[in-house]
Design brief:
The complex is a heterodimer of chains A (266) and B (261).
Chain A (H helix, E strand, L loop, with lengths): L3 H6 L6 E10 L2 E11 L4 E5 L6 H9 L6 E6 L2 E2 L5 H8 L2 E4 L11 H5 L1 H5 L5 H14 L16 H13 L5 E5 L7 H18 L2 E5 L3 H7 L2 E6 L2 E7 L9 H8 L13
Chain B lengths: L1 H33 L8 H13 L2 H23 L7 H40 L2 H7 L4 H39 L4 H11 L2 H27 L4 H32 L2
Helix pairs in contact in B: 1-6, 2-6, 3-4, 3-6, 4-6, 4-7, 4-8, 4-9, 6-7, 6-8, 8-9
The chains are: A alpha/beta (266), B mainly alpha (261).
The complex binds adenosine-5'-triphosphate and magnesium ion (MG).
Chain lengths: 266, 261
């Protein structure tokens, strides 16, 4: 536990501070003591192999998966030990873009985008609809897309709608789970640009998961690598390609030889 | 020796598993119902579930009821003709339809139609992270998805059973008058004389319980489904099979409760 004096010396307290986070599914340890700090107003990129637990990490922060041990502090309060009501209040300040967009396919696009606004019951349907149009425009979609059903959209458009839904309530904290996977390089760059725009404009704190090194350098201020359940390296996103850490080097350069042994059978 | 113990262990495991499932179901149903008492309420979601439950099930339930009423009239005529008790047919038809066949057949048909659809919809939402997404958008999925469906089940099935009762009696009436040559007026008078309010109400009470069971099974299995499309398929099957068995089991228990002296 860091003392208050020490905290004051370090200046700003991190917006998100994770210590000793553990999560196993059965006998399988997915997270095995994750420590991570994300300063307020910065973007953290988390990289790591497929199945290394990146999505599980974010779902633990949101409380969608129950962590086994550890602490997750947001603004200094441990969310793992909050009651449901306090937790809901924290979650209301977080926006999340899911790996597969997770749009509600029973609702038209505009209701997807405005869902959080309508759920908080502070806006009328007409206002929410207008706001959905604005947010759709921010992610480069025409307002007429709002009347379509999510199943009528391409994968890239779904990602953009998912992004619009995540930012519509102007959250303080945003999580992006592989925002550009499966998109063409140009669309990937466009989405990265949108993410950077949103984060900077709202002054939000962000965690983004990605496999794409170009994308990592575009989105992130800082980067961290998750390997065998722990953060094995963290540093500025610009240093990803020459980190000096053999695990990170092998991953970022996509080498077959190195400390990471691909387990073809699990 | 050890083989015998293995057998005992398997029975024990099964029993523990069954208790765990029953406990989980009770908690799930209780949580769903408790959300009906606390705002926010999702009227839109209730209406959607109600229309799905009641309106779209009408044709299936109506056809089932008519044919059942017709067949009972025919069957009991072959039975009763020997005893010269044709007047009893109106009574047999109305009692069996209103007390038993209406609620049970409507329940089974709706379990196959609506229970399966609910499990598939919620299961798909689960495996595509839509349920998690609700949580991140200030919406409690139990309140938004489960509670309205439970309520819709409890209200919609009794209404469907009222329709089934009417059409079942009509089916018996058609066969008796057109095919068996009974006097229509006498048949109707016999029907009214045989039927009591308790018969109708007990059938409707059964229907409310069955509607709850159908929605509960559809929601529980869908909500807790795992493992992609295959998991959703398994959830759908379980929802229908378990709901159907429970309907028949509860039918016995409720009949015992209402009519055994
Ligand atoms: N609900 C769950 N039940 C059981 N195991 C799970 C569950 N969720 C995730 N896992 C396991 O945890 C491990 C990490 O999964 P996770 O989805 O976090 O990987 P990831 O790092 O996001 O990979 P990718 O880059 O492919 O998305 C996987 O081996 C997965 O099988
Ligand atoms: Mg993932």
């Amino acid at each position: 536990m860091m003392s208050h004096a020490l905290r004051a010396m370090n200046g700003a307290h991190p917006k998100i501070r994770i210590r000793g986070l553990r999560k196993s599914f059965g006998a399988k340890k997915v997270l095995d003591g994750v420590d991570l700090d994300v300063p307020a107003g910065s973007s953290m990129v988390v990289i790591g192999g497929s199945g290394s637990g990146k999505s599980v990490l974010i779902k633990c922060i949101l409380g969608l998966i129950e962590a086994d041990a550890g602490t997750i502090e947001i603004d200094g309060a441990d969310v793992l030990r909050m009651d449901r009501r306090a937790r809901d209040a924290v979650n209301a300040r977080i926006g999340m873009l899911f790996q597969n967009s997770a749009l509600f396919d029973s609702l038209p696009v505009w209701e997807n985008v405005a869902f959080g606004l309508l759920a908080q019951r502070r806006t009328s349907r007409a206002e929410a609809r207008a706001r959905a149009g604005e947010v759709l425009a921010q992610v480069g979609l025409d307002a007429s897309v709002g009347d379509l059903s999510p199943s009528e959209l391409s994968g890239g458009m779904q990602k953009r709608v998912g992004l619009a839904r995540a930012i519509a309530a102007q959250p303080e904290i945003m999580f992006f789970d592989e925002p550009t996977t499966g998109l063409d390089p140009i669309m990937g760059a466009v989405i990265d640009g949108l993410i950077v725009d949103c984060v900077k404009r709202l002054g939000s704190t962000a965690i983004a998961i990605t496999h794409d090194m170009a994308s990592a350098r575009r989105i992130g201020d800082a980067a961290a690598m998750l390997y065998e359940g722990r953060i094995v390296w963290s540093g500025p996103a610009g240093a990803l390609m020459e980190s000096g850490n053999p695990v990170v080097d092998q991953f970022t350069h996509g080498r077959r030889e190195g400390p990471i042994q691909m387990q073809l059978r699990r | 020796m050890s083989a015998a113990l293995d057998g005992v262990a398997a029975v024990g495991r099964g029993a523990i598993g069954a208790c765990r499932t029953i406990g989980a179901l009770a908690l799930f149903g209780g949580a769903g119902l408790s959300h009906l008492l606390r705002p926010p309420f999702y009227g839109r979601m209730f209406l959607r579930a109600f229309v799905e439950f009641a309106y779209f099930s009408l044709p299936v339930v109506a056809l089932t009821a008519i044919f059942s009423g017709m067949v009972i009239a025919l069957q009991s005529f072959t039975g009763f003709a020997r005893f010269n008790a044709e007047s009893a047919i109106a009574g047999v038809v109305v009692l069996s339809v209103v007390r038993e066949l209406g609620p049970v057949l409507a329940g089974l048909m709706v379990a196959g139609r609506v229970g399966a659809a609910m499990a598939a919809e919620l299961g798909t939402m689960r495996v595509t992270d839509q349920i998690d997404a609700l949580d991140t958008l200030s919406t409690n999925p139990m309140k938004y998805l489960v509670a309205p469906r439970l309520l819709a089940g409890v209200i919609a099935l009794p209404l469907l059973v009222l329709v089934a009762d009417t059409l079942g009696v009509l089916g018996g009436f058609i066969v008796s008058t057109v095919k068996l040559g009974f006097n229509p007026a006498t048949y109707l008078i016999n029907t009214v004389n045989f039927m009591t309010m308790t018969d109708v109400l007990s059938g409707l009470a059964k229907a409310a319980v069955f509607g709850f069971l159908i929605a509960l099974m559809g929601c529980y299995h869908g909500y807790n489904s795992r493992g992609g499309a295959e998991g959703v398929g398994a959830a759908t099957t379980s929802a229908v099979v378990v709901a159907s068995i429970l309907i028949l089991a509860f039918d016995y228990v409720l009949t015992e409760l209402f009519f055994a002296r």
